Each structure stands twice: as C-alpha cells, then as structure tokens.
Amino acid sequence: MPKLKESLINSVRPDIRNISVNRIRQFDTEFRQIDGLLRLTLGEPDFNAPELVKKAMIASIENNDSHYSTARGSIDFRQAVVHFLKRNYDLDYDPESEILTTVGSTEAIFATLSTILKAGDELLAPSPAYPLYEQLAHVNHAKMIYIPTNDTDFVLTAKRLQESIEAHPNARAIVLTYPNNPTGVEYSGEQLKALADVLAKTDLLVISDEIYSTLNYIGKHVSIASFLPEQTVVLNGVSKSHAMTGDRIGFVAAPKELISQIVKIHQFAITAVSNPAMVGATVAFNDGDAVTEQMRAEYQKRRDFLIPEFKKLGFGVAAPDGAFYLFLKIPEGQNQDDSAFAIELAHKALVGLIPGSCFGPGGEGYLRLSYAASDAKLREALKRLKNYLL
User: Fold this and answer.
1) Angle at the Cα of 309 (from 307 to 314), degrees rounded to 5?
2) Nearest to residue 179, comparing CAs of 216, 220, 225, 150?
3) How far is Cα 224 from Cα 227, in angstroms, rounded to an integer?
4) What average pLDDT does range 255-277 have in this prediction?
5) What is the DSSP string of 101-163?
6) Phi, psi of 54 (to 5 degrees)
7) Residue 298 has pLDDT above 90, yes or no
C-alpha cells in the first residue's frame, strides 16, 4: 500500500485538512460494526425506485444511451423539472436557460456555493442545519453563520432574520431547508412571505433547499421562490421523492444569469450526468406522482405512530411537519452529551441514532431518528429503547 511522501503532506490545502469528515456518515460507519444494531441513522428511503423508473432506465441502457449528455442535462429532463415545479409549486422556469441538472442535490449545493462565495463572505443558515453547508462554506473561504431557532420551535422568524442580517454585513447568501433536516419542520406560506419581505430589501441570495418538498404532512408545500424568484436558487431532486438516492439526479432552478455561471463549476467538476439515471428521473417527475404520494402517506403513518411513543419514553419531539426525521430532545435524567448518549444507546440498546450536535449549534442535547425504515424495524427499535430506558 502506498504512503504519501512525507514532504508532500503539506501540499493539501490547509482549509481542506481542517475540514472534518461528515459526522453523520462517521457515526453510521461506526455503528455498522456493532452486531445486531438497528440503524435509524441515514436519510435513505427504505422503498425501492418505482417500477416505471426502473423500466425506463433499462430501456435507456438497451438503446445504447451511453454517450455524453449536454452539460445542462437532457432537454427532456429539464422540461420534466419545469412541469414538476409548475404542477406542484406554481413556479415558472425556462427549461432551456433556467434549469441545470446535477449529480444529486449535493452537487447542486456544491456548484451553487462554489459559484457565489468568495473569501471573507458569510453564509447564513437557521440552526440546526444539514452540516454540508458549513463545510462547503469553509471550502470556499467563507464563514458559516448560524441563526438560532431553538426558542422559536425551530422556525426562523422575520425578526430574527432581520437581526442576523444587520449583525452580518458580509453575508452573501442564506440557506433555507424546508422541510428541514434534521427537525422535520416545514414553513407555511405566511412564514415564508414574512422572510421574503425582509430578504427583498437586501442583495442576499436565497439558497432554497427543497429536497424534501414532496414529503409534506400539513398541506401544499410553498416555495420561497414564489415570493422572491429574482433572488432565489431552488435545489431539489428525485432522491427522497422517488427513492432514487443512488441514481444521483438533482437540479438547480434559478434566473438564467445565475445558471449560466453555476454551469461552469458543474461542467468542470462532472462534465455531465448519467443518461440512464436522467431518463429514469424524467419518468419519475412526469409520471411518478402517485408513487410519491404512497410513500408520503406511509411516512406520515410512521411519524404519527412514533411521536406519542417517544413522548412516553420522556423525549421531547420537534414538530415534524415534513421529511422523515424525528428530532428528539434527550430526556431529563439521561446523559445530555448527545454524542456520548448516542454511543451508549448503540452499544447497550442496539439502536443507532445520530447525535444532534452533528447539525451544528442548537442541536446539542438532541438525537435525530430517521423513520425511513420498515414498521418492523421501528417497532423493534422502540422495544429495545423501552427495555433500556425504563
């Protein structure tokens, strides 16, 4: 096995060396080594991709669709995205100039932030938040600024947003994720309109991460882009909505002036996405609404079952109005060090949960549970936790 020449170790950028690995994945990897452990760790749908999607991908392969696509992705997929956004959220985009196909929403985040951030910039986000944003801010020599929401039911208020903007004149953009990972909190149209009124008075770019938009349990999902299209970048994809995490198809929707710049980073990083996966995602967006609704209904049933059960165990539960996570406040009398408590539960109760501190300030003292798991696994996990905690 080769070992890097010692004098070359410092050839890695210091800011890259200082970035930590994804702690969610780190805990999941460690928990995989524990025999018999039930992992409720990753945001990975337990459903398989829809049959109509698989058939379309197989046909694509058999038709030798193995050549380069354009950098922006096939026009068929981009048109499907436009119809999806109009049908579900009443958003209007041009498939030719305002949609970019990406390798999942992760690459959409990477390409967008790499395009807009520069040294000295600040990136705002309500906390707790998905950790990728902070690490990509560091990669681009920017600073992550978390806006606390623990005292407002994990919802960013217009007042708190205004205060944060005034305190951080170097802010370049704000990331909003809704439904939220890890809390599951969704924003109403009224709440988003209040935020948009504040943001409209600024030159902040709004990065609207809506990957869980179809998994909404309180009514029709509203995008902040419906109020603020001229300064919003919408990120989404088929990973959560159609159980296609491994196919890695996402998209960016934004004004053409911004898409024309984001596509440069995208093209230099990956050239183009996979054609068969893109064909499958096209079918998913065009014809997969019924399958998505079946999955959404099942997730909601699991959520409704789990919340009262965890309250019986003494956990506080954030109001999860979307996604497929419970953000659990550790009961009084238990170890409030969330990382230590997660490790304790993994080894002694054989249940794997993610520490809330993985999601930044405001996550301390919480655990994230993914209920993207079968009923049998969820019931067994509850049984194990009851036996250990009570």
Assistant:
1) 95
2) 216
3) 5
4) 97
5) EESHHHHHHHHHHHHH--TT-EEEEEES--THHHHHHHHTT-EEEEEE-GGGTT---HHHHHH
6) -65, -40
7) yes
User: How much is the pLDDT for 327?
Assistant: 98
> Which one, of 368, 372, 373, lies nearest residue 180 by Cα?
368
Contact assessment for residue 126 and residue 156, using Cβ atoms and an 8 Å cutoff: yes
Fill in the DSSP letter of residue 250. Answer: E
3-state secondary structure of 45: coil
Centroid of chain to Cα 312 = 29
Place of tokens 């008075």: 201
Residue 283's CB: how many other CB atoms inside 10 A? 23
pLDDT tens-place string over residues 220-233:
999 999 999 999 99
- In single-letter form, the type of residue at position 188 comes to S
Averaged pLDDT for residues 285-314: 97
Q: Is the entire prediction scored with pTM above 0.85?
A: yes
What are the structural domains of the chain?
6-48+291-389 (3.90.1150.10), 51-288 (3.40.640.10)
